[in-house]
Protein 1
Amino acid sequence: MFPDRSLSRLLSLAVLLVSAATALADTEMVMLRDGVSGMAEVLSTTEDSVTVKFETKDGTAGETVFSASRLDEHSFYSLRSKYMEKTVPNHVKLAVFCAENGMFKRAKYQMDQARRLDPEIDDKLEARPDIMAGIAERLAEGVKRAYDKGDLQTAYEIAELITTRFSETPLAEKAYEALDRLEKEMADGEAAETAAREEAITAAADDATRAAAGARNNVLVAIEKRQAAGRGKNSKGLRTNNRSTAKRLFEGAAGDFQSALGATRAARKRAGDDAELIAMLDDVEGELKSEAVNAWINAGNIELWRDNFNGARKAGETARAIDPDSAAARSFLNKVDLARASSGNDWERGGRPTPRPPRRR
C-alpha cells in the first residue's frame, strides 16, 4: 500500500501522462507545482480550480479537478485567463492570484482589463472595506511566501503595495512593520556583500587581482550609497502624513535612483571584459529601474489624489521613460486616463476622488 503522498503523485502522473497519438487538438498543457505535466482537455475553470478531461496511455478516460494551489502558478494563470468568462470580478480575482504569486505584470494586466470593463472599479473596491481587507490579507500571504523564499525585494514590493493601495485596511499597519523589517534585512544583506567584497580584496593572491577587486568594490559602493539614499527617502515618504512632503521625498528618491542608474550604466561601459562586475551591475540596474519607476508612481499617486491629472501623467511618463517595458508605469498611465475621463473636467482640478496617497496612521 502506497503512502498517501506517493499515491497522490502516481494518480497525478496517470492523469497527466497523455498519449500524443490520442491527444485532441484542443488539449492544453497542464503542469503541477512539482513539475509533473501533460496534455488534457480543459472542461471548465473557477477562480481556484481547473477541471480537465484526460486519457492515459492505456486508454483510460476520466475527469478530475485540480485546485489552483496544486497547479503551477503560470499554468493556472494560462488556463484561467483563457477559459474564464471575461467579467470584472474574474479579472480582479485573477489579478489578486497573480499578485500573491509574484506575477506583477500579469496582475497589472488583469486589473487593466477590469478597468476597461468598469472604469469605476477602483472606487467600488475602495467603497467595500470587506473586499479591500480580503485582498490585503491575501497580498500579506504573498509577502510571507516571498520572504520565506528569500526574495526580499518582491516581499518589499508587495508590502509597499498594501501601504499605498490598501492603507485603510487593518493590515496596513502590519505592512509598515514588514517594511521596517525588510529594509533592515536588505541593508544588512548589502553590508554583508560589501564585507565579502572587501574580504576578497584582502585575500587576493597578487597585486593585480587585489587592484581589480578593489576597483570593483569602489564602483559598487558608490552606486549602492546612492541607492540607499533613495530607499531612505522613499521609506520616509511612505510614512509621512504630509502629502507635499511625501511627494518631495518620492521625487528625491527617484532622483537618487536615477543618478545611481546613470552611474551603473556608465560603469558597465567601462567594465570591459570583467564578467563578474558586469553581472553585478546588471543585477543592480534591474533593481534601480524598478525602484525609480515605483518612486515616480508614488509621487504620481499624490497628484492623482489632488486631481492634478497633468502632474500625475508627467510622473507616469517619467516612469515609463526610465523603463519603457514597465507594466507598472503603463498601468499607472491607464489609471490616470481613466480618472481624467471620469472626472468630467478634462484635466482640470476637481471631479471624483482618486486613490489615496501613502499614509501612516
Note: Strands lie at 28-31, 37-46, 49-55, 61-67.
Protein 2
Amino acid sequence: MSGCVSIAGIALLCYAVSVGPWFVFPEYERTGLASAVGVGAGLASLVGAIATSRLKLAGIVGFAGGTLSAGVFQYLRLNHTFASIQDPETPDPNYAQAAVFLVPLGWVVYVATATALFVWIARSALQET
C-alpha cells in the first residue's frame, strides 16, 4: 500500500511544482512563458530525481503522472490565454498561437526524456548492488 500512496504523493508534488510558476510569471510574455516552463521543469526534475533515488519505480511513476498532468494544465492555460484575446482588458500574448500545441508537446518530450533517464539511473543502481 505504501507504493500507491507514494505514487500519488509524488504525482501531486510534481504537479504542484510544475504548475506553480504559471501563477507567478505572466504567460502573455515570451520571457514569462519561458520562465514558467523552465522553472516548472527544473523543480519537477529535482523532485523526480529525489523520488527516484528514494522510491525507485514508485518515484518514477509518480513523476511521470504528475508532470504529464501538468502538460494538460499548460495546454488548457495557453488555450485560455488565446481564447481571451477578445477581452479588451486582457493583454494579447506576444507569441504565435502555435505555442498552444508546441509548449505542451515539448513538455511531453521533456517528461519522456527525464523518465527514461530516471529509469536508466534506477536500473544502473540496481545492477550495482
Note: The helical segments are 2-19, 30-55, 57-83, 99-128.
Protein 3
Amino acid sequence: MQINIKIAFIVIIMAISSCEYVTYTHKSKRNKAKERPPITLFDKLIDFRIEQNSWPVSREDFISKGIKYQKALVDFKYLTITFQIKDSNTMVFRYFDHIKDVEAQKQSEKIELNTYQGTILFFKENNQFVWKKLKY
C-alpha cells in the first residue's frame, strides 16, 4: 500500500512538472518584500476607517473619499484588491494580480504558481487600529 502511494505521488509530480500550462518561478524573500505594497497604504486604510467610520468596500470607494486616498494607490503594482469586512473593527485586505505576473502570464501563456500576492489583517487592539501581514 505504501509503495502505491509513492508511485502515485511520483506520477502526479511528473505530470505537473511536464505540464504545458503551469510554471513555478522562484522569487526570493527580498524580491517579494520589494514588491509588497507600501506601509503608507495600510496607514491610509486605517485613516479611512477612522475618518469614514467604516472600512472601504472597494478600490473605487477608497479613492472616491479624497485625494490622499488616491495618492496612496498611485504606484500600486497590483491590479486586483479585495476588502473582506468581518465587522466594524476587523477587515481582511487582499492584493494580487501583480503587473509583473500578468505580463509574464501573457508572454508565456502559462499559469504561475508562485505569484506576488498578500493578505493583511486590520483589527482593533488596545483601542487603536493596527495591521499585520498574514502568512499562508
Note: The longest helix spans residues 2-17.
Protein 4
Amino acid sequence: MKTLADAWNWYQAAKLNLARMQRLGEKHWSDLSLADASLWQDDHFRMLEAADIISQSTVALKPIDDLAIVVLFSVFESHVRDYLLELLHPQAESINDPILREAADEALQGVKDGSFFSTSAGTPEEAEPRFGRPRHAGGPDS
C-alpha cells in the first residue's frame, strides 16, 4: 500500500467482508434451503461449519481497527520519510566537509531505514555522545 487512500480502502473492505462472512455463518450457513447450492461442491466450504465461520471471523474482526491504525500510520510514516528525503537530500549533497558529509549521509540513511520510534533520540541520558564530546547535565555548552 502506497497511499493513505489505499490503506483506508483495504481497512474498509477487510472489515466489511469479515463482517459479511460472520453474518453468513450466523444467519445463513445452516439454511436447509441452500442444501443444493453449488457452494457445497467446493472443497473449501464443504466441511466448514457455521460455528467455525462465526468464531474465525470474530477472531479476525476483533483486532481489525487496531491493525488498521498500524497500517495507516505505517503509510503516513513512509510519506513523511519520503518528504524528508526529498527535502534533505539536496542540502546534504551541497556539503563539502567530509565529517559533516558523513553525518548527513548517516542521517539520510537513518531516515530511509528507520521509523519514528527508532530515530527518536530519547532522553539526553540515553543519547550517545557525538563527535567525542561528552554530554553535560547543564547542556552542550556547560
Note: The radius of gyration is 26 Å.
